[in-house]
Design goal:
The structure is a homodimer. By secondary structure, chain A is mainly alpha-helical. Helix content of chain A is 69%, strand content 3%. The first copy, chain A, contains 23 helices and 8 strands. The longest helix of chain A is centred in the middle third of the chain and has 49 residues. At the A-B interface, helix 1, helix 8, helix 21, helix 22 and helix 23 of A face helix 1, helix 8, helix 21, helix 22 and helix 23 of B. Chains A, B: It is found in: Membrane.
Chain lengths: 658, 658
């Protein structure tokens, strides 16, 4: 649209003339060396990709490559951490105590009327599973992954500078920022003209957030009602499978809702951005990405946030439960802790999203579209065959799907980066699954770009733009989220507090007893006691909370332990957040932004330039001298050599060297 | 030292030739318009300063100007916050309760043997003074000042870009980073050669830290012993003035120690940096600044940190006090709270440091040196007078002190910035004092540069270098420090918790009673009870802490209230830190780095360039066309206009336009 971009494009097209000759070779190599699953272990031929598809797509694949490569160490550490959990599950005292039938903790019923008292040892399975993800190694892993995120960003910064140096992208910086002279009409829009657009924007985004939250709420209500109904069922088998059935179906519903809303939100973001009438192309893209990211992020993570930080915290206590719709008790976490539920939720959504998106949206739908197009175009192609000419390239190209921008590709990866960084404390295998997905994803994308899409117009870009900011923002956000997951969702802090403050022996023995409060069954509200109990004469049942026992003067209020554990949890958050932020700063400071090889190359180039310049100056000086000596022989006495006159010229040099 | 710097200097000197003609005028204007106290309300003639002293000094004064200017709103808000404290001191319920003699709280003795029980109402004065600095407005002010620090940095970034644009400094960037080719000998030093230097460095810095901490410890011991000795004195007047005398003398000792160590640390930092043999000049300066900053920062703030976060926290409780040297009880905070002590410490060190440094180090010593030099040089000057010639400029210049770099000037301001940002929650008048100091400081520095120092060699610089990083680091650090001061040093959180959790009426009535624990006098250790008491038969005394009463089953352990308040304090830290960090990000994001006027100017310039370029292209095209038409008339049939040939040329354009 602007004059200078037109010129720049002209330049680009002209430059392209030189490259176009090598395209068929290029295509061949890309097809054979890059767009194949069997090449998964190889480095990508990024320079070729850039040559064939342009800088923007080249940068995407380079970025994806760096990300995938760095997932390897993260996966290995994740596997080791998970292995530590597996190895220590049998020696772990809390899970041993939970499985120990001789300890005989009688727990308060899980629902009103239909549910009976139960023994804690029946929850042995979840307790053991919980230990796999909820152990001290997880804390180490959360710190590790926070630093990993910083390392990844720093590494990418270096790679980007290397690429922009070898692809000679440094010059286009200013073009992008200032040169898009837009039509005067858009330029002249005042804030009053833009106000309605902004209002629609804000209200639409809030409405979409509302939609997401209602979807989450709907699933919660589904879980509450269905589990209540199933608990009342006379069939004992239905009863025993309540938790598994409900959790599994609910997560699947969540997943389907996320996938559907994801598609809707993409369209909504586009519509909203068009309403804003951004001034420039770059501006448009940035706003679109930000909006789409915001909507999709909330969509993908809302159910996970609910499980991590809210589930089970509003359930009340025996004798004073919280009810929704007057009849249904708010849901609680599994007896093994909330972390195992978070882990299930996270893994299913992450895996499901990746598998479904890869298979259906990225392979299935394009294939389907291609098929439809092929059938449609059959007539015209047949007409051409009658002409007995080979089909032209542009016709072959037309049979391919159009290129729809890199935004969906980046978005998918960024949301995945969220799974890897935000809640990694609850699921140390996330990097491994991400790695496996990405190894396929690279080749899948490559295949798609090479064979299934029309070759996109090559677009220049000096960096990955706003995606970097989003990544960096997520990295920062992940620190506080992980701090809260470790301190509030996992049982790490209560265990530490028990061991060092309340344990008589300094060991973990007695921890389970310590976390269970007492409840006097006679304090149950009328009609909520078990209708028919197999447990005979029970006067006191236990529940997981830190509250005063019934025989205390202020029964059922939060006990001293509660406040003590809460203080420890909060102190841990402060410690963790500030430690990780400090370490991140150190890591970012230690790793120089510009790789050493490039610094040296720049130095060499500069030295060369200076040498050339000096030689020229010397020659000029000699020339002047010889002229003067000739002159001087004619006019003796005026023999002043203007040595300083050469100097003002290098002023130009410093801008050329930049 | 490198070739290119030599060239660059050559250029600079050549460029200087044009300017030198205007120097006397320049000097005159600076002397009359800038280096006078009466010009304090005026903007500085920064462009003239830069012309006369070079970019580096120009940037310093520009920075100092921006900082001082932004201190004005901070001072105004600080005065309003302080005014709020003054206005509400009479209606404040906690200080009313403390002054209310009818409530009759009998407090446990403040020292062993010599001290008697005492009534809380005698501490009424400090309670009222405390409210001036410890009220809800302080919390608002701390948030405000954290954002102010971000705003200041952003504002400076914009100003710097404006200056570097109008002074044309953009080009020198790369020169600074890559061009200092150092001698091969230094280049070849391996880490093994550098190891001893680093070892000496680290150990020396640790030793200096040790020195600072021992000085702080020495003052603490002074305070403990002197107050114990004075309390034992038979003179009642000495006894009643214990706290005031001890606090005042201790702070003065602190101040003197800080001023002496400051000078020593400056020299040590220089010596240590020389040991490291840094590769470049810039590198040398950066390392020197970092080391000097680290040492001086710890020196200036160690006593303040002690008062803010450690004083009174290790004193123990009645019946179980902590003793040093077996005889002296650890010191406690004043009954009004620790914040008032922090405030006294802060204000005296800040004011004392500024006054003494301004008067003695910046005015007194230079004058003294000048005097000494004048006396010394008397002989030679007299000899010259005999020659009956006017004294030469270089002789006049020699009579002036040499320029010792900007580091001390910046350092003084950065340490002051620390007082304004780090502990501002405890002393809202700090910005006002800083403002008053700086208004004088600018003119004092100006006077010094214009009249008292030899004119320094003009040095180019594109920014204020590492000082920006130090400022930004301090801004980040101040967030967490202010969070801790508000939640742990002030009584803000305990008051909130009391009002919303423990108060029966929802008001602050009864707060003082709630913060005082009970102690059974019979539990005092033998020999620590008051030797002669005026209070008759006392069985229970009170002390400020949240502990179980003597009649509880676990007497004197921390009570539920203690843990509850602790949790609230920690939650506040998390909330405050993350809120301020988030707001800072928003502020930094909202304010564009490059001022709009400059963006537009760049656009205009670019457009101009493009226009010129297009005209040239057009002319070239017409020329070619006319040539071809001439040619064509000779060779008809080859009439192909090579339109695309003009295009590859603009490739140069994009780098020139940068």
């Amino acid at each position: 649209s602007g004059i200078s971009t037109l010129i720049a494009k002209g330049v680009y097209d002209a430059a392209f003339l030189f490259m176009i000759a090598s395209f068929p070779v290029c295509f061949q190599v890309l097809h054979e060396e890059w767009a194949r699953y069997s090449a998964f272990y190889k480095y990508q031929p990024i320079d070729l990709v850039r040559k064939y598809f342009g800088e923007k797509i080249g940068l995407y694949f380079a970025w994806l490559g760096v990300y995938t490569q760095l997932l390897i160490p993260a996966s290995i550490v994740g596997i080791i951490v998970f292995g530590y959990g597996v190895a220590t599950v049998d020696t772990n005292i809390p899970s041993q105590e939970m499985c120990d039938e001789s300890l005989n903790f009688t727990m308060c019923p899980l629902c009103d009327g239909a549910c009976d008292f139960w023994h804690l040892s029946t929850a042995c399975g979840t307790a053991r599973a919980s230990h796999l993800f909820d152990n001290p190694a997880t804390v180490f892993f959360a710190i590790f992954m926070s630093l990993w995120a910083v390392l990844f960003l720093e590494h990418w910064k270096r790679r980007q500078i290397s690429l922009s140096f070898s692809w000679d992208l440094t010059g286009i910086e200013d073009d992008e920022v200032y040169s898009l002279f837009t039509s005067a009409a858009i330029e002249k829009l005042t804030w009053k003209d833009r106000l309605p657009g902004y209002c629609i924007n804000v209200s639409s985004i809030l409405f979409m957030f509302g939609l997401t939250f209602s979807a989450v709420l709907g699933v919660i209500i589904y879980r509450i009602t269905v589990s209540a109904l199933m608990a009342m069922s006379p069939d004992p088998e239905t009863k025993s499978n309540v938790r598994v059935t409900v959790t599994a179906t609910a997560v699947i519903i969540n997943l389907v809702v996320i996938l559907i809303l994801d598609e809707i939100y993409g369209a909504v973001a586009l519509w909203l951005t068009e309403l804003e009438i951004p001034k420039t192309e770059t501006n448009f893209e940035e706003r679109l990405i930000l909006k789409a990211f915001l909507l999709k992020f909330v969509n993908a993570y809302a159910p996970i946030f609910y499980v991590a930080f809210f589930k089970g915290r509003f359930a009340g206590r025996p004798g004073n439960y919280v009810y929704v719709f007057n009849d249904y008790r708010m849901e609680e976490c599994a007896p093994g802790g909330c972390l195992i539920e978070l882990c299930i939720q996270l893994s299913i959504i992450m895996l499901g999203k990746q598998l479904i998106q890869n298979n259906i949206f990225e392979i299935g739908i394009p294939k389907l579209k291609k098929l439809v197009r092929a059938i449609k175009d059959k007539g015209s192609t047949e007409a051409e065959i009658e002409d007995e000419r080979p089909p032209k390239q542009w016709n072959l190209d037309y049979a391919l799907a159009p290129f729809e921008g890199l935004t969906p590709e980046y978005m998918e990866m960024i949301i995945q980066f969220g799974f890897v960084s935000l809640f990694v404390a609850s699921f140390p295998l996330a990097p491994l699954f991400a790695l496996l997905n990405n190894v396929i994803e690279i080749r899948l994308d490559a295949k798609k770009f090479v064979t299934e899409l029309r070759r996109p117009v090559a677009v220049r870009a000096k960096d990955i733009g706003i995606w970097y900011n989003i990544l960096s923002g997520m990295g920062k956000f992940s620190v506080i989220i992980n701090a809260f997951v470790i301190s509030f969702t996992s049982d790490f802090i209560p265990r530490l507090v028990y061991q060092y403050m309340f344990s008589q022996t300094g060991t973990m023995h007695g921890f389970i007893d310590h976390t269970l409060s007492y409840f006097n069954v006679s304090n149950l509200k009328a009609g909520t006691a078990p209708l028919n109990s197999d447990h005979g004469d029970i006067t006191v049942c236990r529940y997981k909370d830190y509250r005063e026992p019934p025989w205390s003067s202020d029964a059922y209020t939060f006990s001293k332990q509660y406040w003590c554990v809460l203080a420890a949890r909060l102190a841990f958050v402060i410690l963790f957040q500030n430690l990780v932020m400090f370490l991140s700063l150190v890591v970012a400071w230690v790793i120089p932004d510009i790789p050493k090889t490039i610094v040296e190359q720049l130095k060499r180039e500069k030295k060369l330039l200076v040498d050339v310049f000096l030689r020229e100056e010397k020659e000029k000086f000699q020339l002047i001298q010889s002229l003067f000596s000739k002159d001087a022989s004619k006019h003796p006495g005026s023999h002043v050599i203007p040595q300083s006159q050469g100097a003002p010229l290098p002023g130009r040099y410093s801008t050329l060297g930049g």
